[in-house]
Amino acid sequence: MSSFPDDVEGYYAELAERRGWSAETSAAIRSTVELIRDLDRGTASRTYGAAVDDYGTDWLYEAVWHEREWVVVRQLGVGEDGEVRRYWWQRLEDDEGMLTDQSLDREDWGLRPLTREDFYTAWDDPGWSLSA
């Protein structure tokens, strides 16, 4: 099995303990983390999109084409209160939410196009806002 950086290993170990995951659940989560990491690091086609939800949170998505669907590999949420939530292979979930496990559907999700540059501007500097 692939190893993760120590901080990532520690995060998932703590999460597994806190949530009481069985060995099977921990193995399934690890497998998902490895897949998302490999897709994130890979060279497959990518798409980016953005939407504002009913609560005023800006959601930005990066998805990779994999097995005939767009798999979200990075998701960024910035609430009106400035709270930032980043989900990717190093943190698939936390107590506030998780990386979507649904394939990205631009039309159903009402996504606006977003460039790679705009996505990474927001990822690196979450003070950036769609609604500002």
From TrEMBL:
This is Uncharacterized protein.
